Amino acid sequence: MSGEIINTLNKGINVFKNDLLNSKLVTEYVDISIITFGGNVKTIQEFCQVGEFRFPELIADGDSCLGDAILFAIDCIEKKGLFMRLKMFNIIGHGCL
Q: Which of 2, 15, 54, 72 could disulfide-link 60, Cβ–Cβ 3.0 to 4.6 Å?
């Protein structure tokens, strides 16, 4: 991925973020993370709420290891899900709900 394609991806991420920011419900309940996979798979934006979402301009770098990135993303989501279940358990356990 290079040139106009990566530029379009960067613009698309900004449009996506701005669209999400237009919904109060989304800003309260949606978390976003960015994982890149140019050469190696890595997280460049940890999960955060939409209002805290920041990302550097993406650049094309290395081969696209899409399969590895998908497996990495699944693992991150499963870990996040476990964290959210534990967080909800703590809230319920302390009588906050």
A: 2
Q: By 3-state DSSP, what share of the chain in percent is helix, strand and coil, each rounded to 5? A: 55, 15, 25
Give tens-digit pLDDT for 15-28: 888 888 898 887 87
pLDDT digits 0-9 by tens, 15-72: 888 888 898 887 877 888 888 887 788 888 888 888 888 877 888 777 777 888 888 8
User: What does the H/E/C string look like for the chain?
Assistant: CCCHHHHHHHHHHHHHHHHHHCCHHHHHHCEEEEEECECCCEEEEEEEEHHHCCCCCCCCCCCECHHHHHHHHHHHHHHHHHHHHHHHHHHHHCCCC
Query: Which residue is associated with the tokens 């959210």?
Result: 84
Tokens of 82: 């476990």
Q: Give all strands (DSSP E) within 1-97, no chain letters.
A: 31-36, 42-49
